[in-house]
Specification:
The protein has about 60 residues and is mainly α. It contains three helices and no strands.
């Protein structure tokens, strides 16, 4: 199957199915993850949580 056939087949899908295909294709391009990113996010989340529970900051809805 070549790219033209794939695109023609994709056009036959409904909008939700095309969105899923697009998401999967884009996600497949993002294979490299910076080292330490998850740890940095966890540390930041913990810091923000501690600020909330210690009343250093106020939450807003």
């Amino acid at each position: 199957m070549n790219i033209t056939q794939v695109l023609e087949n994709a056009k036959q899908l409904n909008v939700n199915e095309r969105a899923l295909v697009a998401h999967c294709l884009i996600s497949s391009l993002e294979t490299r993850q910076d080292e330490g990113v998850e740890q940095a996010w966890a540390e930041l989340a913990d810091k923000r949580f501690q600020e909330l529970v210690s009343d250093k900051v106020e939450s807003v809805s």
